[in-house]
Design brief:
By secondary structure, this protein is α+β, with helices and mostly antiparallel strands. It is 21% helix and 23% strand. It is built from three helices and seven strands. It has a seven-stranded mixed beta sheet, covered by helices on one side. The longest helix is centred in the N-terminal third of the chain and has 16 residues, at 2-17. It is globular and about 35 Å long.
Length: 187
């Protein structure tokens, strides 16, 4: 069951990522930046071994060769997208936060579950946590923590990079990002 949830989360993440580029571009032909291996197809070892293909940080593409997304998105552009899967009930929820602090919560089928807007302080805290996390230097899959069988698996997309990991394997900087997000469930 755990492997099924991880595969389902990886597939949902891939579908969601397909449209993450500005204006829905979702791709390009330029190579990853130097020092980035791009997506890995090998299996991981350790706590995230059953989470599907490992993903190294991969740059987002925008229109035109060599174009990169801006570190500070425009108000209508996505600042961060985080998918949380697993838990006792095996649920999948995605939070999408725009550059102006507006956010939406999506269910497993990418249907709307809720929306809101972060306060100025909340948006500043999230931007700070994202900047301090330094996504360009994070591994594609965070490993090393103990396995929590009914724990959560997170996938983060920010600034052109995707990183993922089980809750107990997330580095402290990503835990601060999770703490600065709106709630993943209504309640």
């Amino acid at each position: 069951m755990r492997a099924f949830r991880a595969v389902a989360a990886a597939l949902l993440g891939a579908v969601v990522l397909a449209g993450c580029g500005p204006s829905g571009s979702g791709g390009g032909d330029d190579a990853p930046p130097q020092g980035s291996a791009g997506p890995s197809t090998g299996a991981s070892t350790g706590a995230g071994a059953d989470a599907g293909p490992a993903a190294s940080p991969s740059p987002a593409r925008s229109s035109g060769p060599g174009a990169r997304t801006s570190a500070v998105p425009a108000p209508g552009e996505t600042l961060v997208r985080v998918t949380r899967s697993g838990g006792f009930a095996g649920e999948i929820h995605t939070l999408v936060v725009q550059g102006d602090g507006s956010w939406s919560r999506l269910d497993a089928e990418a249907g709307p579950e809720g929306a809101g807007k972060l306060s100025k302080q909340g948006l500043a805290a999230l931007r700070t946590a994202l900047r301090e996390a330094d996504f360009a230097r994070l591994p594609g899959i965070a490993t090393g923590g103990p396995t929590i069988y009914d724990g959560f698996f997170y996938t983060f997309v920010h600034g052109g990079y995707e990183v993922a990991g089980e809750q107990e394997s997330l580095p402290p900087a990503l835990v601060r990002v999770v703490d600065a997000l709106p709630p993943f469930t209504q309640g």
